[in-house]
Amino acid sequence: MIAIKELMTDATGRVIRTMIVEDQRDLREGLSTLVNFTPGFTCVGSFRSMEECIARVKHDQPDVILSDIGLPGISGIEGIRILKDQYPDLIILVLTVYDDNEKIFDALCAGASGYLLKQTEPAELLKCVREAVDGGAPMSPEVAARVIKLFREVRPPEKVDYDLTPHETRLLKLLVEGHNYVTASEKLNISYNTIKFHVRNIYDKLQVHSKSEAVAIAMRDRLVS
Predict the structure, then answer these.
(1) Residue 225's closest CA among 168, 178, 152, 173?
(2) For residue 186, what are the domain limits?
(3) Tens-place pLDDT, residues 180-196
(4) 95 and 181 assigned to the same domain
(5) In the prediction, which pLDDT does 1 show?
(6) What strand order describes the sheet that includes 64-67?
(7) Directed axis angle between helix 25-36 and helix 122-133, to 10°?
(8) Do 80 and 119 fall within a single domain?
């Protein structure tokens, strides 16, 4: 088995600032320990509620939030909506036991960048966090299968025009195919920062805040072929 240390080493030396929202104390502390003892990661805050998290985000400035959705007080899904409204570029990954269609759909539409189940192995979990930072939309295999089924069942409207340029459409197609910012920049032979610029334009035109939302609309409205 590949060691977590080997798997998580980042040649750039960047440390991913991670925040955790989980009401179960043992799991919350276990996740914090996992993050803090893995090279390339640091836990900048762990909270039992969304209210506590929302109050600290501006001060602690996380790159990624790992959040449950069954929380006391404000639900995780409503918390995602609030956070994405205030911080559109913030990456939020759901980490939960719930794998039903309604919660998956609501979380992704609220702006979650990925949806993971709590049985995800520690090394795989951290790999998914790094994937999200690189522009990916990680999902547990069971969730990914449900998402594909969900969007196959959604009937698209007759015609939708978001005024995407040909270049933006090509980039959106790559995102749908699973590319992240790094691999998309290699595929299109343009810089990482240029990819981020065009992705922001795509988000503005589609009125979304995350890659998962953009991919969902692209599939629903058949914006790419």
Answers:
(1) 173
(2) 163-220
(3) 888 899 999 999 889 99
(4) no
(5) 35
(6) 41-47, 16-21, 64-67, 91-96, 114-117
(7) 70
(8) yes
